[in-house]
Amino acid sequence: MLKAEWEKRRTLVENGLIREMQEGEAFDARLAESMKYSLLAGGKRLRPILLMAAADAVGGRGEDYLPSACALEMIHTYSLIHDDLPAMDDDDYRRGRLTNHKVYGAGIATLAGDGLLTLAFEVLARQPGVPADTALRVVREVSEAAGANGMVGGQALDLESEGKHIDRDTLCRMHMAKTGALFRAAIRSGAILAGADEAQLSALTEYAEAFGLAFQITDDILDVTGDEAAIGKPVGSDERNHKSTYVTLTSLDEAKLLAREAADRAHHALVPLGEKAAFLSELAEYLVTRDR
To answer: For the chain, how far is it from start to end, CA to CA, in angstroms?
Structure first.
């Protein structure tokens, strides 16, 4: 079921992103081209798929919230563009092709990220079919996750930690902000949009936190064991940038065990939601077996 459902939802997201970019076209042609270059470059589209799947899991219809799902992908893509910049990770390749700044220059790439971030909130604000207070709640959820107390804060801690030995608690805190916060926002936003009750939202929040941890640990593992062609970016970048990871702080085998434990916690969190959460459960299992 996972592959077929994933591809169906990924196609929805791809088409939705094209529509949103047409509606929110930048007036500067090169800026618009740069934004599209990264946003429409493919990828797993995991965050928008999680948003829709969370809505399904609480009895909603995830496809109804495609605009909000696309907004999450815009924020994720902006973060990748900025992560790759010379002042950050200075990466040359992303998703199998040159990074944005290698094509458009650091200035336009920076503005493309800024443009996608702000467009995301425009798209969130015009999500049809939800009460104004619900839309506002989602905007706050996403802005907190993307900001200085979420993803941006985690990125800052990541930069400050380069070349330093940090402990596991600091590493976990960094990644729960840098990577996990947006996963948490995607899942909680889907549930909120679909009218989840507090028990459902609590279960999905627990799932999201375990999912984010499993994802990051697996990412660290793939930076050591992954295939560059499958991943679409160079492997070994963590070591080159002297970054502490779950692999360097423990071992490859222990990191795999930690990822498995986190995935198991994600599975357990979904038990109260029953069969409607089956797709989310399969996604958690995918994390510990993925090769990209």
So the answer is: 19
Distance CA 51, CA 191 (A): 8
Domain boundaries, the chain: 2-287
Token look-up 């960094």 returns: 174
Q: Which CATH superfamily is domain 2-287 in?
A: Farnesyl Diphosphate Synthase (1.10.600.10)
Give the pLDDT confidence of 77-126 residue by residue, as tens digits.
Answer: 999 999 999 999 899 999 889 999 999 999 999 999 999 999 999 999 99
For residue 78, which of 43, 51, 114 has the smallest C-alpha distance? Answer: 114
This prediction has a pTM of 0.93
Please state at what angle helix 181-193 crosses helix 132-146, rounded to 10 degrees: 170
